[in-house]
UniProtKB/TrEMBL annotation:
Domain of life, source organism: Bacteria
Protein known as: Methyltransferase
């Protein structure tokens, strides 16, 4: 598999290695037979997709079949075999069709040097900031994008953005001069949907991210509002290198999916310490088995730590900071698990 090119905060807290380590812990037996069977099945799946593209078959049907078949293959192979198969898929000729989709292409090429950057999310948000790239796609690329932007993961991410805005609004309704911190904020697109921001109800909304380009984007997009864009990382938060103050609401979306459990526990503890009494911390993590992991890990080269509700609960159970209330829920779409902790 193509490796990520950079350690996100220079200290490798969020890296491909942390994800593969998580994966390796589940490995039972490395079997040659299974590799050969997997290779044969993958070759068939990819060649069926290639033939369908070449024959101009309906793109939605081709993508649906490809996604389902990759998912079925992933679910019956060991993580080590799957890692081998993803690297084969990525060099298969069918990728020349799939990479015409601007979303698949951005994810695979990683222009920012790492997976899951804020511009990739803009393709998922169908945000005007990526209109030019979307309009420049070939007719086939546009049809594939119509599929990938409607995938379960993409629908879940758009729902997540809306839920985050609603959480911020609820906090602002219940607390005068509320202070909010978004960790791994990306482009903070949820702020565009917040009524509390529009009606100046917040004291400050700090948007922290390790990527200076995203920090710059937030800074110019929300100039003149209470939003403060800050360059920082999980490491700077854990190392208390920045004096961020205390908050009524802290949240992290699109981050825990990259964090090994030990780092997730430490970050959660630190976030709880930064809350005012009665404050809330929300973490979001993609749920396992939403049906698109196979496609994302192959053609998008976007591996994540997909967790079960029990695995999210296990992070909370290991936290050594007093919690007065906790709830683990899913959104309507079910693709993202949310934990909300109150101190
Ligand atoms: C998938 S995006 C999510 C962005 C935003 N929260 C959203 O939901 O649209 C992940 C973001 O996490 C940031 N990130 C990744 N590792 C980080 C770290 N160690 N510290 C701070 N930010 C990090 C990336 O720069 C990127 O903007």
């Amino acid at each position: 598999m193509k490796q990520f090119q950079t350690a996100l905060d220079g200290y490798s807290l969020v890296t491909a290695q942390s994800i593969s380590k998580h994966t390796r812990s589940a490995v039972s037996k490395f079997s040659n037979d299974q590799i050969k069977e997997g290779e044969a099945e993958l070759a068939l799946v990819l060649s069926l997709a290639q033939q369908a593209f070449e024959a101009n078959a309906p793109v939605q049907d081709t993508m649906k079949a490809l996604t389902e078949r990759l998912q079925a293959l992933k679910s019956k192979t060991t993580p080590m075999t799957w890692a081998h198969l993803t690297s084969l898929a990525q060099v298969h000729p069918v990728s020349s069709f799939l990479l015409q989709d601007p979303l698949t292409r951005w994810s695979f090429e990683k222009p920012r040097g790492y997976s899951g950057d804020a511009q990739l999310l803009d393709f998922i948000y169908e945000h005007p900031a990526v209109d030019v790239q979307v309009k420049a796609a070939s007719p086939l690329g546009a049809e594939i994008y119509d599929f990938t932007r409607m995938a379960a993961s993409a629908v879940a991410v758009r729902e997540r953005r809306d839920l985050l805005a609603a959480h911020v609004d609820t906090v602002a309704d219940g607390t005068e001069n509320a202070e909010v911190l978004a960790i791994a904020a990306g482009h903070l697109r949820e702020a565009e949907r917040s009524n509390a921001l529009k009606s100046n109800k917040l004291k400050r909304w700090v948007a922290l991210d390790q990527d200076p380009i995203s920090v710059g984007t937030v800074s110019s997009a929300f100039r003149g509002t209470c939003i403060e864009a800050v360059n920082g990382s999980v490491r700077t938060i854990l190392g208390r290198a920045q004096k961020l103050g205390t908050f009524d609401f802290i949240y992290a979306a699109g981050l825990y999916d990259y964090l090994a459990e030990s780092v997730a526990v430490k970050l959660t503890e630190r976030c709880l310490q930064m809350l005012k009494p009665g404050g809330k911390f929300l973490l979001a993590n993609f749920a396992q088995d939403i049906g698109v992991e196979g496609y994302m890990e192959t053609f998008m080269n976007w591996p994540l730590i997909w967790r079960t509700d029990r695995e999210v609960q296990s992070i909370i159970d290991k936290v050594k900071h007093p919690i007065t209330d906790s709830a683990v829920t899913r959104g309507e779409n079910g693709g993202v698990i949310y934990a909300v902790l109150t101190v």
